[in-house]
Design goal:
- Helix content is about 0%, strand content about 65%.
- The chain is mostly beta strands.
- It has one domain.
- Strands 3-2-6-5-4-1-7 form a seven-stranded antiparallel sheet, with no helix packed on it.
- The protein is globular.
- The N and C termini lie close together (about 10 Å).
Length: about 80
């Protein structure tokens, strides 16, 4: 299920277009919104557990490990 999300911060992400292409680093600007399938997960870092999501966009691209604090749901 796709959700409309809005980004709360300027965020650099590694965008996966396909397994055959290298990751593409892009800047998602604060206030921009996109439709994405959101798959939540927890990762551990030096500060403890962090809630992140793998975002799968309608155009087939994916951004992995995006912190939930960086976006909000619009729908």
């Amino acid at each position: 299920m796709y959700h409309t999300i809005e980004f709360n911060v300027d965020l650099w992400v590694d965008l996966e277009r396909s397994p055959r292409h290298p990751l593409e680093k892009i800047l998602i600007c604060r206030g921009s919104w996109r439709r994405a399938e959101v798959r939540p997960r927890i990762i551990e870092n030096e500060d403890g557990a962090v809630e992140v999501a793998d975002l799968f966009f309608e155009d087939g691209a994916a951004a992995r490990g995006v912190p939930f604090a960086a976006f909000r749901f619009l729908d």
